[in-house]
Amino acid sequence: MCEDNHGGPGRRALFVTGAAAALTLGGVTFASAAGGGRDDAGQESRTVRGTLPPGSPDFVYVPVEVPAGVREIKVAYAYDRPSVPPGTTGNALDIGVFDDRGTELGGRGFRGWSGGARTEFFIRADDATPGYIPGPVRPGTWHIALGPYTVAPQGMSYEITVTLTYGEPGETARPVYPPERARGRGRAWYRGDCHLHSWYSDGRRTPAEIGALARAAGLDFINSSEHNTHAAHAHWADVAGDDLLVMLGEEITTRNGHVLALGTDPGTFVDWRYRARDNRFGRFARRIRHAGGLVVPAHPHATCVGCNWKFGFGEADAVEVWNGPYTPDDEVALADWDSMLVASVRDGRDGRDWLPAMGSSDAHRDPDTVGSPQTVVLADDLTRRAVQEGLRAGRSYVAESARVGLSFRASGGRGEHAGIGGRLRVARDTPVTVRLEVTGAPRCTVRFVTDQGVLHTSAPLPVSGSGVVEWRTTASYAAYVRAELRHEAAAGPLPGALAAFTNPVFLGGQ
Asked: Taking the alpha carbons of 288, 293, 298, 300 in that order, is the dihedral positive or negative?
């Protein structure tokens, strides 16, 4: 590690413990509030340069000594991107900032994070760059947080310029958040997309644009899920309406996987600065639940660096099995989730600890399609709590669009019946009829999947896209049944891409 600090002491780096590996560099200092280092615009700048080697800590902190009388802090940064051999990761450097309250794990001093989406940001009392939290620029030691996501074999040379503007601060507006209720239809099936990114993290759409796309996609609810920041929470109130419930959350983007905080209290921030080996995730899963949210690991088998889920599923309320356009990693996630269903009915556990599946678009920008896929949940009303309860109970299915509709149930011989996420309580040898009604899926094939695997495959549905498929079994033969709706396969033995799938109906358990 080398460092060239223009205007501040060139101290050696100091290791810090307590979270994922971190490093604190020598500080950047400015003139006092009465100092003469300012230009005619009342600004003062300092630049720090350095080089990070391969294998650098997950987080590198650059202290900035902020004097009194500062109206705005602005940070700009750049780093080199040397060419690397095929199969070798190049340089990628994320950035954020913590204020005078410090960098302690938990985020009390958190003031914003833009990852690698921006090359500069500012904060002042009345405004801030998207992804950052407006508020006073108090005197004290602030910390620029660098996240060397990947470092090339040649190392990573960086340059950071900090500019302070002095003057009277503006006023911080009181945040206004979206309501927790929209005009629902009572107990009904509601469609939602719980993984979306706006320009408040690395997306390119405004909340208003996302709201318009959600309505066009036939959605009833969405969830704000920016990477490692809650800065968007106060910018959704004008998007919500009687026809669209907007829940608030975050995508906690760690180096060992991503997890959605779904439907947390407004203003909730959840820290991301830990790995599975640090044994910290349970603390932050509890933080999500304490704030009224659900814990939903996202794209658990994604192939991007740091995206594959490594924390296990013991703390999860649901799992995002289908993320965006259907790809092989979604197929792996589906198979992995099905194995967890089998484990939940093993050893006499009777399926009581099963983990529901979800699907979301993870849309960032054009041409990403909001609402593809979407989770369709049976909820008592269109409220935050009712939607969360339906998701937690697994009363839901996932569809590629609002055109696809499913009705799935299992029935016994005496009028007993159960729907998605429920249990049909019949004797082990009682005949059970499983019935799936489909709309909006031309030429798709229905598959019924049990703890033994695929036990029934239908003929393709007609070009109208509507049809009914039935299958008969018993609880002794199938501990659960779930339905998949598949597009035609292009070639080979692999099934076609999903058009929809349901959570299971469990059988037996009288």
From this structure: positive
